[in-house]
Design a protein that fits this description.
This protein has 229 residues and is an alpha+beta fold. The protein has a single domain, classed as PAS domain (Beta-Lactamase). Helices cover 47% and strands 16% of the residues. The chain has 10 helices and 5 strands; from the N terminus they run H-H-E-E-H-H-H-E-E-E-H-H-H-H-H. It has helices spanning 2-15, 22-30, 63-69, 73-76, 91-102, 149-169, 171-185, 189-197, 201-213, 223-226; strands at residues 48-52, 58-61, 110-114, 120-131, 137-146. The protein has a 5-stranded antiparallel sheet with strand order 2-1-5-4-3. A hairpin with a 5-residue loop joins strand 4 and strand 5 (137-146). Helix 6 (149-169) packs across helix 7 (171-185). The termini are far apart.
């Protein structure tokens, strides 16, 4: 009798293509969305915020983070931040990001992220690192704001070039190309980003501080905010 019920349940599950196998459930969870060429426009007055451990495992995300990427808390917590990594992003940029974060340095990077439904959104980042008493990193806080359209246009061109070098020649060749480009401009990474944004470091930082106080829309428009017209 018990065997009959088990068989019946198995038949129903198979008919509805439902699996109870934990490996395939896990695989499905790890499956990345297929990117589609549709942008999610961000509200320039709001901040997307997340907190991770020292290795980039998500421990907290604010409401706007989830509203934009389309994942729920239970899908994000405990996951690596690469859950929203877009395949158009060059490895070189994340390598630069981690080099700086591991030294406790901030980095303003332009990042194209992948939402759960396959759409993309561009952000500009601002990081803060927290340490324990022994000086070991315990958390990274990432705040992200919408990036102005003209900056994205320039960055997209650069990322396409970096990605094509990486895909054909490998990351080291792409890294050398990127340092060559900065050397030619006689700039470090941060100066290069500020040049693209057309504002100074103080203006970028104050823009992020403004929005850290409140993640709700504010009437006050910062220098950076005015870039959005
Ligand atoms: C606090 C924090 C926030 C991050 N935010 C993002 C993000 O928004 N998008 C992203 O693709 N990677 C983000 N990363 C970097 C990822 O950890 C990861 O290095 C990146 O997605 C590349 O994935 P991969 O290292 O598996 O290639 C973040 C890392 C940290 C520590």
């Amino acid at each position: 009798m018990q065997t009959d019920v088990k068989k019946q349940i198995e038949t129903i599950l198979a008919d509805h293509k439902i699996t109870t196998d934990s490996t395939s459930i896990k695989n499905k969870r790890n499956q990345k969305p297929t990117p589609i060429d549709r942008e999610i426009k961000l509200d320039p007055s709001r901040t997307i915020m997340s907190k991770t451990d020292a290795r980039g495992v998500i421990e907290y995300a604010n409401d706007y983070f989830m509203e934009i990427c389309g994942y729920e808390e239970y899908e994000l917590m405990g996951q690596p931040h690469s859950i929203i990594r877009h395949p158009d992003m060059p490895k070189v940029i994340f390598s630069e990001l981690w080099k700086r974060l591991n030294k406790g340095e901030n980095i303003h990077a332009f990042v194209k992220n992948l939402a759960k439904d396959g759409r993309y959104y561009w952000v500009l980042t601002n990081f803060e690192t927290k340490y324990d008493e022994s000086g070991a990193i315990i958390s990274h806080y990432a705040r992200r704001k919408a990036a102005p359209g003209n900056a994205i246009y320039q960055i997209e061109k650069l990322y396409k070039t970096l990605k094509s070098i990486e895909d054909t020649q490998g990351i080291e060749v792409a890294e050398r190309y990127f340092s060559g480009l900065l050397e030619e401009k006689n700039m470090n990474y941060n100066e290069f980003i500020l040049e693209i944004l057309g504002i100074n470091e103080k203006a970028v930082v104050s823009y992020f501080i403004d929005s850290t106080q409140t993640s709700k829309p504010t009437k006050k428009r910062s220098v950076f905010g005015r870039l959005f017209g």
